[in-house]
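Session log. Operator J.P. requested a structure for one protein chain; no other inputs attached. Running the standard single-chain path with C-alpha cell output.
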Amino acid sequence: MERYQFGKVNKKALEDNFIRALKDEDFVKLVNTLDVDDEIKFHYTSNLKEIVEINKICSRCKGLSFCPYDIKGLKKQAVVEDNLIKFVYCKCHYKEKYDDERSYLKNVNIYKMPKEIREATFRNIYKDDSNRLETIKYLKGFYDQYEKDKHIKGLYLYGNFGCGKTYLISALFNELAKKNISSTIIYFPEFLRSLKASFGNVEDNYEERFDEVKESKLLLLDDIGAEKLSDWARDEVLGVILQYRMEEHLPTFFTSNLSIKELEDHLQINKNSSDKIKARRIIERIKFLTNEIEMNSVNRRI
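Structure written below.
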C-alpha cells in the first residue's frame, strides 16, 4: 500500500495541474468516486492520472496472459482512508477468475516438483498412445471409487523415462483436490536429501514435515529407486512411512523406472542376508499398498 504525505508545495501549481487533468472524462469519473476535499486530490493528480491510464489498458485487455505488468493481474487503485488518498493493489477480474479456478490446488501439497505437475488435469492427458490406456483406466477407476472406499489400493507405476507417469498420477490428485480431498506429492530423492539436512534442526521442523508426508490422505512418492539409498533412508524413512500407511490403509502411489522386483535389488544396500530381509519387508509393504502397472510410452520430454 502506498500513502503520500505532503510538505510545502506550490498550491496554485497543484491546482492548475489538477484542472488540466479534468479535461479527461475518465479522470473526472475517478476523482468523483473519492470522497475527500479537492485540495487533497490536488496532491495526487499524477498518481490518479496513472490509475486512469492503467484502467484504460485493462479495459482493452483480452486475458491474463496479455497483462503488460510485472505482476500479472494486479492493478493499482485509489481508496480513501482517514481523509487521505491511499493506493493499493487489487486483482483484476481475469486474475480473480484464474485464482478461483485453481483454488483447489491448496489441497495438493507438492514438494520439489515442476510447474506442469501442479497444473496437471485429466482433460490434458494424452490419450493417443495405447500403452497409456491401462494406467488411465486404472486412475479413472480410482477417481470414481475413492469417495466410496477411502482405503482402496494405490498404484506402483513404472516404465521408461519421460513417459508421463508422474503427470498422470498428479492429474488424479488434482481432480480429487477439486472435491476438497487433500494429497501430497514429493520427489522422493530430494525429499530424502532435505529431510536429512533438517535432522536435528528445530527450526526446520523435521518431525512435522515427516508426519505430514506419512499421514497424508493420498501420497505419491515420485521416482523411487532414483535416490542414493542409505540404511537410514530405507529403514527410518521409507520403511516407517510405508508401515504407517499400511496400518492405516492410506492409498499410496509410486512412480519409478524400476519394477518392484528391480526395486527390491536396489533396496539391498550391502547385499548381505540382513539387507535382503529388510528389502523384502519394504517390498511386501509396497505390494500391500499398491497394484503394479508397467507403462512404456513415448518420451514426451525430448
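Operator note: Residues 2-97 form one domain.
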